[in-house]
Amino acid sequence: MTPRIVNVAIIGGGLMGREVAAALQRWPSLIDHPVRPQLTAVCDINEAALGWFDQIVSVATKVTDYRQLLDDPSIDVIYVAVRHDLHESIYREVIAAGKGLLAEKPFGIDEAAAKSIVAAVEEHPESFVRCSSEMPFFPGAQMALNYVRSGALGTIIEARSSFLHSSDLDPAKPIGWKRQNKYCGEAGVLNDLGMHTWHVPLRLGWVPDQVFGVFQNIVPERPGPDGSVVECDTWENVVLHSWASHEGVAFPLTTETKRIAPGEKNTWVFEAIGMNGGVRFSTKNPKLVEVFDVVDVPGQGREQVWQHIDSGSQSVWPTVTGPIFEFGFSDSILQMWAAYLAEREGLLGDRFGCVTPHEALETHRIYREARDSVASRLGATD
Ligand SMILES: NC(=O)c1ccc[n+]([C@@H]2O[C@H](COP(=O)([O-])OP(=O)(O)OC[C@H]3O[C@@H](n4cnc5c(N)ncnc54)[C@H](O)[C@@H]3O)[C@@H](O)[C@H]2O)c1
Fold it and tell me: Quick one: which atom of ligand 1 is closest to the CA of 13?
């Protein structure tokens, strides 16, 4: 099959805009994908950010006003990676223009913004919209997900899904937009990292019906752009304890999103344990998947055992990479795009797909209920 050419544009040429642009250049490593994306345009309000894209020859259009991309009939799909306070207006305009949208998380700065984006999606079914969340495309994450789906857990006892880094350990690190509520959103680190912790639980149908939040603001002040001290008002670390259900049985589901988790660098963790089995995966050791079983150990009898499996390189879409080779962050971005563009063509089949608009909206409902749980707890102690 000759792949269909899809022209892609990027709005926001910062950290993630460059990451996605680079990942798309590795498209030939995917085997028999129905689509061939071409990055043809980029927009950033900061002209200096556009210069980086000169090295990608297919990028013919560089603009500082994204509306010029919306008016360009040659553009099929837009990836938007900008500040959270800009999500609602830009996403709604991209959707109304009929372009496909792969939108960065948190899919709006709060629940009201997410609802308004979902309303636009429903008004414009011609625009295929998904939200970014790449970590579940690690092969070990896929193995863990498939393990749970297989029923091997039996009655589930508990599950944990975490995203941990420690970019903010140094209190002298200058404040940026991600550390201010007006740009990041009042959910703080949940807006930054929460999608990473909820994509897999929600896909497993683990929609919590009760949420209790533990919120920490550890560094309340940071140096501003001119060196003077300014308020750093976002939540840094949040643990959510919730009740979810698996096959009709309620179990405790814990998610952790932390910007100050000393020693961690972008660690995505998923673990689930049941009466019959268990599974654990962490990107800290990205090859390793652990599965639990009770087995006959020669000379020892029946023992409870955590067994180790090397997960290799293959994820949702097959690649030319040797199956025993390693997988990394940029591979997960490529796999997420493979899933997005295949699903947009109606050709993803039963493979794992990107976060849907309704799943993204659900995360905002969870964050709000978590914040309400804190308010009611504080109220009760008055
Ligand atoms: N999926 C992930 O793993 C991941 C990782 C980091 C950030 N993110 C998300 O990506 C988004 C962007 O984060 P980032 O780290 O790339 O931010 P960034 O600050 O590095 O880049 C944002 C870029 O947007 C540009 N910009 C601002 N307003 C604009 C406008 N109106 N039109 C065009 N460009 C504009 C800025 O000049 C900047 O270059 C956020 O939603 C963030 O939560 C996702």
Answer: 39
What tens digit of pLDDT does each residue of 42-92 get? 999 999 999 999 999 999 999 999 999 999 999 999 999 999 999 999 999
309-322 residue pLDDT tens: 999 999 999 999 99
Closest residue CA from atom 5 of ligand 1: 16
Homologous superfamily of 4-131 = NAD(P)-binding Rossmann-like Domain (3.40.50.720)
Question: Does 135-328+339-373 carry CATH code 3.30.360.10?
Answer: yes
Does any ligand 1 atom lie closer than 6 A to the CB of residue 81?
yes
* CATH 3.30.360.10 domain span(s) along the chain: 135-328+339-373
For residues 271 and 259, what is the distance between their CA atoms, to the nearest angstrom? 20
CB count in 10 Å sphere of residue 50: 18
Radius of gyration of the chain (CA): 21
Separation in Å, CA 264 to CA 107, 164, 260: 25, 6, 8
How far, in Å, CA of 194 to CA of 214, rounded?
14
Counting DSSP H helices and E strands in the chain, the numbers are 10, 16
Give the integer Cα–Cα distance in Å for 353 and 340: 7
Question: In this structure, are residues 359 and 200 in contact, taking their beta carbons and an 8 Å threshold?
Answer: no
Amino acid at 96: A
Please tell me the pTM assigned to this model.
0.97
Q: Is the CB of 134 under 6 A from ligand 1?
A: yes
Which ligand 1 atom is nearest residue 191's CA?
43
Laid out side by side, the sheet with 4-11 consists of 61-63, 35-43, 4-11, 77-80, 100-103, 129-131
Q: Residue holding tokens 């995966």?
A: 281
The answer to whether the beta carbons of residues 274 and 234 sit under 8 Å apart is: no
Which residues lie below 8 Å from residue 1, measured CB to CB, with a gap of 6+? 32, 34
